[in-house]
Amino acid sequence: MCPPEYYEVAYAINPWMDTATPVDTELALKQWERLRETLTGLGHTVHVLTPEANLPDMVYAANGAFMVDGTAYGARFKHPQRTAEAIAHRAFYESNGWTYVAPAQTNEGEGDFAFLPDAYGGLVLAGYGFRTEVAAHAEAQDVLGRPVVSLRLVEPRFYHLDTALAALDDGAIAYYPAAFSEPSQRVLRQLFPDAVTADDADAHAFGLNLVSDGRHVVLNSEATGMAQKLADAGYVPVLVELSELKKGGGSVKCCVAELRP
């Protein structure tokens, strides 16, 4: 995770961002700290990446890489405003002794990749359509040695996979069907017939931009409908307020890069 010390909405590169809407950086820091405390309180170790000036989106740490089996497939951001973030993430992974592979293709890390180790022998779901190029899916498959299933995103507000789909445990997902093309919806129905499906209200409340340890599911406090669906499915929802970070187009998952050493 990376604290939002320099967070602001200084430009608009997704439909959620509005440069005319004020951002309370102090409140964003408090909300971020509460998320960090929630994760550590659930027994998880949180590594903190040092934020850098002029990189206001560094708080969305999930976009910096995608790690499986101790190998981090690095990010190559689409928009120039975020390009330098990839350098900081590379330094983090390499300083911790993990293998880092620099990408040749445009991709935005866990923003567009999800890993399900118990699904079909260890499946990677990968989004494209707005940020990550589909060619990066083949590159990720080569780097990580895991099968990758490409899913096309078609709704601009759901510009990253992690706004429209989430791994709930090692083999189950939740997703918002309308964010995907009809062929991709058919693929998801075939692969995950028992998935938890979100409605419009769930998705627009960032109810799928969540982090789950297989039992506890940490998600945006506005997503009360999604929380109930998760509880009905046997999970324990944990609601966290992230109203300021939502202004930049992200919530819980965007703030958390999951490490799989």
In short:
This protein is 25% helix and 18% strand. The protein is of the alpha/beta class. The chain has one domain: 5-stranded Propeller (L-arginine/glycine Amidinotransferase, Chain A), CATH 3.75.10.
What does this structure look like?
- There is one protein chain.
- The chain is an alpha/beta fold.
- The protein has one domain (25-255): L-arginine/glycine Amidinotransferase, Chain A (5-stranded Propeller), CATH 3.75.10.
- It is built from seven helices and twelve strands.
- The chain has helices spanning 25-41, 85-95, 135-144, 182-191, 200-204, 224-232, 243-246; strands spanning 65-68, 71-74, 99-101, 113-116, 123-128, 148-152, 165-167, 173-175, 196-197, 211-212, 216-220, 236-240.
- The strands form four sheets. It has a three-stranded mixed sheet, sandwiched between helices.
- The longest helix is centred in the N-terminal third of the chain and has 17 residues, at 25-41.
- The two termini are 16 Å apart.
- The relative contact order is 0.17.
- It comes from Phytohabitans rumicis.
- One of its GO terms (biological process) is citrulline metabolic process.
- Keywords: Hydrolase.
